[in-house]
Structures are given as C-alpha cells and as structure tokens.
Amino acid sequence: MAFKEERIRKITNLYYSRPDIQKAIYEFSKNREICPRYFEGFGKRPDSFQYPSDVFEMARKGATSFNCSEELWEDPMKIVTGMSEEQANQLRIGWDLIIDIDSKYIDYSKICAEIIINFLKFHRMKNIRIKFSGSKGFHLIIPWKAFPEEVNGIQTKNMFPEWPRIMIKYIIEQTKKQLIEKISDIERPNKYVKNFQASKEVMPDIILVSPRHLFRMPYSLHEKTALASVVIDAEQISKFDLKDANPLKAEIKNFIPNVKEGEASEFLIQALDWHRENYGRNESSAPNGISSGVKSKNASMGEFKPINLGEISDKNFPDSIKKILNGLSDGKQRALFILINFFRSIGMERNELEKRIYDWNKKNNPQLAENRIKAQFIQSYKNKIVLPPNYDKDYYAGIGIIPTQEEIRYKNPVSYFVKKTLQNKNKGN
Known about the structure:
Layout: H1 3-16, H2 19-29, E1 34-38, E2 41-42, H3 53-60, E3 65-69, E4 71-73, H4 85-91, E5 92-95, E6 97-101, H5 106-122, E7 129-132, E8 138-142, E9 150-151, E10 154-155, H6 162-184, H7 198-201, E11 214-216, E12 231-232, H8 265-279, H9 319-325, H10 332-345, H11 350-363, H12 370-381, H13 393-397, H14 405-410, H15 413-426
Antiparallel strand pairs: 1-2, 1-3, 3-11, 4-5, 6-8, 7-8, 7-12, 9-10
Helix pairs in contact: 2-3, 5-6, 6-8, 10-12
C-alpha cells in the first residue's frame, strides 16, 4: 500500500468515526441515491444509508468518500438502470439545483462563486449555501423547496435535467462578462492561463447536470486531497483557505439553506423566459439539445416584425394588459417581460416604451428595483422582437391575471390589439 493511500485511510477512519460527521452525511442523504467511492472505484448503485452509523461501517470497509444524487426519490432503492423517463418521473419527488463551480485554480473558483451568489441574490434568493468541493472548486445549492410545484401546468419535478440546465445556462450567459472582467482585474491578470476562456476554465458545466448525476456529499472527504467538503458561509468565500477544510478541524453547518417555499419561482420563470426568447423559435438550436419543456407557441411564426398601425391607443389594449398596467403586488418580473414584448411588438418607440414601464412600476407595490428594469431593457433590445406569451391561463394566472374569453379567442395580446385597432379605424373612431 502506497504511503499516501495508507495516510488517507487512517484519516478516513478517524474522520468518519465522528458522530457529528455521520449525522451530517446521513441527514443530507435522505431521499437521495448514494454511492460510496473506494480507492479502486465506485461502489454499487443504487445504495442508501439506513442509520448514521452506516457511514462509518462503509468507511471501515474501505469507502473514502460519499457521493449522492441531485434528484430526490420516493425510494432510491427502487431505481433501475435504464428505466424509462415515465418511470423516473413517477419515482422522482423533486431535485435540487446544484451549481458545480470547478477550476484548476481555486482563485478563479472563488471569484466565480461570489459573482454567481450576487447574481442569485439579485434574483431575490436570500438564503444561499455553498460548500467546498474538496479540491479546487465549490458547490452551490438551491434546494427543491425553493421551486414552484408547476409552471404553466407542467410539473417541475418532471423537468430534470432540462430546467436545471436552462437555469445554469442562464447564469453562465448573464455572469460570464463580469467574471472575465473581474479576473482581468486581479494583481497578475490571467496568471494561470493564456487566452483565458471562462466557460472552459471556471464556469459550471451544463453536461454535469444529467439524470442520476452524483456529486460529493457535504462533509465527505476527497480521497486525492484528504480535505473535507465543508460548508462555508457565503460571505466568507474570499477568505476561504484550503486549511479551512482540514478534516480534523471541520465544524458542522447545514448545507440546505432555510429557504421559503417557492423562493426561486421568479428566478426559474425568468430563466425559462430568457431561454424561450433566445432559443424558442428553434429548439434544436438550444445548447446541448436543451428544451425548456414549455413549447414556444410562437415558434412556427418565424421572425416577428413590429406592427405599425399608426397612433397607439390604450383603448385597444387587451384587458389583461390593462390590468397589468394598473400595478401588481406579485409576478412583476413576469409582467415586465409581457409588457416589453407587447409594446415592442406593436411598434412602440423605445423612449415611449421605457416611460410607460417606469410609470407602471410606480403603481406596483412593492416596486421593481430600477436596475432590474434596466437589465431587462438591455436584454430585450439585444435580441430580435418576439411576441408576448400567448393566452395560456396558467402563465397569466400566475401573476393574478385571468384573460377573458374574447382575449383567448385571439390567442395573443398582439393579435387582439391589431384586430381592435383595425375595427375601430373602420368605425371611424
């Protein structure tokens, strides 16, 4: 037995004998498929813990680390290799979004983690947990409890890995520029890598979000570094040092944050809206063959060009748009997406559009942050014009707006506006 392997085995037995470590690993394993790793490779799948002491028993038999699923299962031991999507959906009760930040260089990983955490906080996720991977990276978690049960009538639990991939892609695209700028500002720019490429060197890998994908459990050891996958306070990332992951000094913190139910709903919906806006017209063009699971009802229309019917009259707006313009208390981010696309589609000039949006925001309680509105303007005008969502009851109902039967007949707010405008012109009104 090599000296390094012998040393790690000794640390392993000592470390996993701690009752607090056993409890932390066991508690996190509930409803998850677990898989121990040995020096020789991974153990059997699926597996699970029945008691906290099982952790130490596996360690005594040679297990060096423990990995688990992002997916949550009714009974992990019923998982069968090669089971159909339908079978998986019946067995799956949810999933956590695990953002895997991995780089050869921990300095880069720390910068990336901080940027993503700030991005998530911008999207109203107040409780974010992060842990050290055990090597040179970090894992961020948004737990299942934070997501809505369904979006547009589609069960969220069934949309793994499609929706987690979309959310991670959304994070990557929205933070990549800042990451490159931040790394370029360090004392020795790009000191590790020439021709630095964020997506290759640091950014989360979408491919890793896949059915039955495993990640290192909190407080598991890393068999190559002999460091523990410790939970870190989000505010302390910049100060984190590898010695803080010394297994003999590890202090237990809960990896699952204390989130409110549905806390990440707005973030998920915004990511899906972003994906539809950028890839909805041609799902096959989405990266890695990702589909949002919400088929774009405008996809067959091709590129949409703004309508010019002369003067824009509010009286021709559909009731749903009028109700939104009266101000909202919930669903304002989704409503902002609807309004901007509606106004752009009917040919409203940008200056007028922005004035109307800011006037509308004054009626909201509470108001959207101005920087969020500006960010949405920038994002929208970077892309071609797309129609607002069709009258899907669930979509509009989600912000407290129920379309009338007349609106539903026209399918889309823009179609309604065009028809009413032409009717009133013919009447001489």
